[in-house]
């Protein structure tokens, strides 16, 4: 049997109000998994096995989620067990604490520091280890990093002494953008380890 067959009935929703959602949809599809955009509250009527919250601008995404009346809905879905993967701004949206910033969904026991590498020179590329996956390419764009984690949070990647990937139950965050690299390994990790 091919690797793809076990993904046959899997569907991933990608939050598509702002930011790099198209790139996530492409990555999920590259793995042979169905992906669809979530733009409104009613899009949650479709069944899904996991949710991706993309990078972009966390303040803008947070405001749109409030304006569209989606913030509580998404928080409830996650609290009721929907697996979630947040990248960059998505990490900030999921964090329970944000240094000098606003908390949005607040469902992961991490403290995020926004624009942690500086606003202008904060973009870089590196290849580093991701626990359980190996060395992968990582693209950082005005990225946050994690300054504190709770007891139940597993640290998956540390770059230059800073936590850049973590997992708590079926909630995964990366401060880098795996959707902007050649590799599909982090998406595969999310789908295989957290959604199936
Ligand atoms: N590439 C990104 O998602 C950047 C995140 C952005 N700096 C924020 O605070 O929302």
According to CATH, what is the class? Answer: Alpha Beta
Supply the number of structural domains. Answer: 1
Topology pattern, helix = H, strand = E: EHEEHHEHEEEEEEEEH
Structural class: alpha/beta
- Rg over CA atoms, rounded to whole Å, is 15 Å
Keywords:
3-stranded mixed beta sheet; 7-stranded mixed beta sheet; single chain; 5 helices; 196 residues; alpha/beta; binds glutamine; Rossmann fold; globular
Short summary:
Its EC number is 4.3.3.6, 3.5.1.2. InterPro entries: Class_I_gatase-like, PdxT/SNO, PdxT/SNO_CS. The chain has 196 residues and is an alpha/beta fold.
Please, could you describe this protein's structure?
- The protein is α/β, with parallel strands linked by helices and 196 residues long.
- It has a single domain, classed as Class I glutamine amidotransferase (GATase) domain (Rossmann fold, 3-Layer(aba) Sandwich), CATH 3.40.50.
- The chain is built from five helices and twelve strands.
- The protein has helices spanning 21-30, 58-67, 71-79, 89-94, 185-195; strands at 11-15, 34-38, 50-53, 84-87, 95-99, 108-113, 124-130, 134-140, 145-149, 154-159, 162-168, 171-174.
- The strands form three sheets. It has a seven-stranded mixed beta sheet with strand order 2-1-3-4-12-11-10.
- Bound molecules: glutamine.
- Glutamine binds next to helix 4.
Secondary-structure topology with pairs:
Layout: E1 11-15, H1 21-30, E2 34-38, E3 50-53, H2 58-67, H3 71-79, E4 84-87, H4 89-94, E5 95-99, E6 108-113, E7 124-130, E8 134-140, E9 145-149, E10 154-159, E11 162-168, E12 171-174, H5 185-195
